[in-house]
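Standup notes
- HV: blocked on the assembly model, inputs below
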Amino acid sequence: MEGSPTRSLSPAWLSYYVAISQILGLTVITMAGVWMGQYRGGIAWTSSLQFNVHPLCMIIGMVFLQGDGKLGWRCFQAGSDQSPPCLPGLTPLLAWCVKWLIAVFEYHRKQGYPDMYSLHSWCGIAAFSLYFVQWLLGFCFFLFPGASFLLRSKYKPQHIFFGAFLLILSITTALLGIMELLLFSIKDKYSSFVPEGILANTLGLLLIAFGAVTGYILTRDEWRRPPLAEEMALSMDFKTLTEGESPSSSQ
Amino acid sequence: MEGSPTRSLSPAWLSYYVAISQILGLTVITMAGVWMGQYRGGIAWTSSLQFNVHPLCMIIGMVFLQGDGKLGWRCFQAGSDQSPPCLPGLTPLLAWCVKWLIAVFEYHRKQGYPDMYSLHSWCGIAAFSLYFVQWLLGFCFFLFPGASFLLRSKYKPQHIFFGAFLLILSITTALLGIMELLLFSIKDKYSSFVPEGILANTLGLLLIAFGAVTGYILTRDEWRRPPLAEEMALSMDFKTLTEGESPSSSQ
């Protein structure tokens, strides 16, 4: 994001924005639960209701927990430098567990449905694969003690960009899933503005709102974690090295 | 985006990334044209083919031109300060014209289909309404001579954030539209991996790739437009004013 010459929001506002994001996130989870419970017959680990675990768990894991993992950077910025990475480190693990707990592939097999043909499933598998790569690289660069400070500093902006990209891709995949489920289950009634369609459409808009508020918090300059003293020093050294042709070129 | 302590990409790389984004954007437009031409019977301003103008024009206007309008900020950063806003200023106008040229509502009326019931249409109308508001506010703050410099500086970060948000929302809406069209036109054959389904799914993934490359260019610190001297001076004055309780509090 472009830097702002003036800083109009005080750090105290962060709490309000985080509160709004949490209300939106919990509303979205509740609405997904109501949709599955009220209109799709509920959830179960066996029978045809096994499929209904998928939308609920994916919204909890890949949207709400992933978003909150990133917000952890802002909420815990007053703590030590070592504590925040644990949140994004743990969150994908949780989401990953949730992902494998749900049994959409098993449900497809039982019902004789083919796998992986729709745009929703292509986006979903791309999001999940890239998420796993991001988690693995994040673990290697930030938690593994062997990575040098310079290497971490070079990788950090990529990690942050792909973190934001994966949250957006996860929300997009969720929206595609809502659309797919609606057109498979209530295609003929959808255009009559039936309550299920309105509930699912509203759920989609609230998912976008959750993404927007989370993205707004993460991109505000005012709420950035201030760089550590050694990061600043290294940045200056690196700048000196790269702006000249070589350390001796300015002599 | 979080600031990077090291700057690993030289400004010269910007050209390569912009080239990749343009190749992706033009590929996406071509694929949308091929989809409509090869599998949906082509486009026309009358008859039932009128509907097919919608996907093609929306991808050109709301995705490609909108993305390129934002990239104009990076590509023309070497020029005068007044030239770049014309690009984002013109682009929504073009997209707006394209939007109203397409006749999806008229097509619905002719065919007797109801309007505005699906998640795709809800997201689309939200994106377009907010886009128009963004364009109007951008015009008032940046092109209208009455807005003060301080007011512009305060609004600028919001304009940039909502610009990025609207591009993402437009791409998401396009993906929902692809999903909806596929499930309305080839629902029974979709799971057999027919060429039309694969083409449309690939188009969806390339739309995401276009958004990712554009977003990457826009969020890299290295490629930001350097702030003007008066912006820097105002920023310092504003900081002095806001950090103390009042100008006299530090005395």
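- HV (later): unblocked. The domain at 15-222 of chain A is CATH 1.20.120.1770 (Four Helix Bundle (Hemerythrin (Met), subunit A)). The CA atoms of residues 40 and 52 of chain A lie 7 Å apart.
- Next: hand off to the docking folks.
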